[in-house]
Design goal:
By secondary structure, the chain is an all-alpha fold. It has one domain. Helices cover 56% and strands 3% of the residues. The longest helix is centred in the N-terminal third of the chain and has 17 residues, at 33-49. It starts with a helix and ends with a helix.
């Protein structure tokens, strides 16, 4: 597993590319939701460091190589529950609809202030949760 120190040393653009490469291959080919949530976490922290949003479609294309939108709700749900339980800004609020530019209606407490909290947070200082920790957070709620 990659530790946060290795990721922190990379510029954010390269970190996102590294996250994409690290989460491809046998581990993620037919993987569980929590492994996919871990993959999404890595992608989203790169976007947050660059103060960028990502559309649901683009996130699905990055993760699956196709428009697999139906899977993203539960995957992002793992992240929102983890953030909530660990008092972190809702990382998933930077995932937005193509037409509206806003997160889905199920995203808790979304507003511009919450998105700014995500952008201000130094995500590379946070050790990424393991797939097992994301699974536990999902089951707890």
């Amino acid at each position: 597993m990659v530790n946060s120190i290795e990721f922190r040393a990379l510029p954010t653009e390269r970190a996102t590319r590294a996250a994409k490469l690290l989460t491809r291959g046998p581990l993620f080919k037919h993987s569980s939701l929590e492994k996919r949530a871990f993959q999404a976490w890595l992608i989203l922290i790169g976007r947050a460091e660059r103060r960028e949003t990502v559309t649901y479609t683009d996130l699905a294309l990055t993760m699956f190589g196709k428009r697999a939108l139906r899977h993203l709700g539960k995957i992002l749900g793992h992240i929102v529950h983890y953030c909530e339980q660990h008092r972190l800004p809702y990382l998933n609020c930077i995932v937005v609809g193509k037409r509206t530019g806003k997160p889905g209606w199920k995203v808790p407490e979304y507003n511009d202030k919450e998105r700014e909290k995500v952008y201000r947070r130094r995500w590379f200082d946070v050790l990424p949760p393991s797939p097992e920790e994301l699974k536990t957070a999902w089951k707890r709620d």
